[in-house]
Amino acid sequence: MKYYINSNTGDCISENEGVYKLHLLTRYDPIFLPSETIDITYAQFITLKGFIPIKKKKLSNRTRKKYGPTLSDGSKGNPSRVYVPTKAEAREELLKQLGL
Q1: pLDDT digits (tens, 9 = 90+) for 11-25
Q2: What does the pLDDT average to over 48-62?
Q3: Cα of 89 vs its chain's centroid, Å
Q4: Which residue from 8, 9, 13, 59 has the least number of CB within 10 angstroms?
């Protein structure tokens, strides 16, 4: 099994005997989008840019590390956990913002 990671987004691709799967991480845009796995073809894999090979050992380590954001003055900030609301909570928040 081979793994590829996009260092900008954290998304990864796993390849097992010619079957490619794109693993998308949870995102905020302007609501939280859940993580998902999409089957892709070899042609789609070739057209994706920014993915580099990575060992499985390194892939599992990336979930445990917590990096602090770089602040505007160049110093490292403190890492913090992000609360991911449910779809119902995100919907209520959008309705509240729209004034409905």
Answers
A1: 889 999 999 999 888
A2: 78
A3: 21
A4: 8
Tokens standing for 10? Answer: 């954290």
For the beta carbon of residue 5, count every other beta carbon within 10 angstroms.
19
What residues contact residue 30 under an 8 Å CB cut-off, 6+ apart? 94
Q: Cα–Cα distance between 17 and 35 in angstroms, integer?
A: 24
Domain boundary assignment for the chain: 2-70+78-98
Whole-Å CA distances, 100 to 29, 33, 85, 87, 88: 20, 22, 19, 17, 15
